[in-house]
Design brief:
Shape: globular
Oligomer: single chain
Distance between the termini: 6 Å
Low-confidence stretches: none
Order of helices and strands: EHEEHEHEHEEEEHEHHEHEE
Strand content: 15-25%
Structural class: alpha/beta
Largest sheet: 7 strands, mixed
Helix content: 10-25%
Number of strands: 13
Bound molecules: zinc ion
Length: about 300
């Protein structure tokens, strides 16, 4: 049985974002139901040991809010977290690692390009490599994360390349992991070895290719990039100068958007994740939310647990 907990569904900045006065952030400051932390999920095959997919800057708050991830067994030092799988090197995917520096052993699984970012930023040395192993993962090569005693977790993860971008703070800079494009943005197929049940996780994706469509067809569950409703949303709202595409994120709506591109693929449950606070689909009564829901999409609340 595979258990999945949505720790957070928001994109960088969260909802509300500290310095934002957009309609969603304004409303979210007084409406807890609209508030959302930055995107991350936790997965477990045995209900006892958990792995995080990405470590958001809100990790500490997420761990407090998630009983499944609290210390167990009356021990003075304990965490059910056995590892963290990173799908990219953005701030909202890696900064939470800095909140895991209190000496608990775990393993970081990431592509060499993302590990090179951790290696190049000495602040991550707070995660002593004697305790916190850094395990490279490769595109198209399935791996099974290990439990603390080295035994298999029962979870099989297949990383694959999806259209995307390097972390934007590296734009115009030399990437410490080299300039080959592979490895910056991974999608994951996460499966339970005992039952064969599986789901897909794509928190960043710039476009839906035919290859991706055939991969996702028939999946019981997908988490998919829901950063913006329309590509020019930040510019139109006067909030920024970047399009979704320039940040490596597909729009929910429109030609080539996620809703249209992933329609008719017989996907069981479709959940948007990594939703920016500018996105009107976050408002429960908006026309955009209704359109997304009519197309079978959900926007999960923080703490939502799904069992596969
Ligand atoms: Zn906002």
């Amino acid at each position: 049985m595979l258990r999945v907990v949505v720790l957070g569904a928001a994109a960088g900045g969260g909802v509300p974002q500290w310095n934002c006065g957009c309609p969603v952030c304004l409303k979210a400051r007084t409406d807890p139901e609209l508030q959302s932390t930055q995107a991350s999920i936790a997965i477990s095959a045995d209900g006892e040991h958990w792995f995080l997919v990405n470590a958001s800057p809100d990790l500490r708050q997420q761990l407090i809010a998630t009983p499944q991830l609290h210390p167990k067994g009356g021990r003075l030092r304990h965490s059910p977290i056995a590892g963290v799988i990173l799908t990219n090197g953005e701030v909202d995917a890696v900064a939470g690692l800095l909140s895991m520096r209190e000496g608990w052993p775990f393993t970081i699984y990431a592509h060499g390009k993302v590990l090179s970012i951790l290696g190049d930023n000495s602040i991550f040395n707070v995660l002593n490599e004697k305790n916190v192993r850094r395990q490279p993962i490769e595109v198209d090569k399935a791996f099974e994360p290990a439990l603390p005693d080295g035994s298999p977790s029962g979870i099989e993860i297949l990383p694959f390349e999806v259209p995307g971008k390097s972390a934007w703070y590296l734009e115009g800079k030399t990437h410490p992991g080299g300039n080959a494009s592979v490895g910056d943005t991974l999608g994951l197929r996460i499966g339970d070895k005992a039952t064969g049940r599986y789901f897909y996780f794509l928190a960043a994706c710039a476009s839906v290719t035919d290859d991706l469509k055939s991969r996702l067809a028939g999946a019981p569950l997908i988490f998919f990039d829901g950063t913006v409703w329309r590509d020019d949303e930040l510019i139109a709202a006067g909030l920024g100068t970047k399009t979704g595409q320039s940040m490596g994120h597909i729009a929910m709506s429109g030609d080539g958007g996620a809703i249209g591109s992933l329609a008719g693929l017989d996907i069981g449950q479709k959940m948007f994740l990594h939703i920016n606070n500018s996105n009107p689909a976050l408002l429960h009564d908006s026309a955009e939310r209704k359109m997304a829901e009519r197309a079978g999409w959900q926007i999960p609340a923080d703490g939502t647990e799904i069992t596969l």
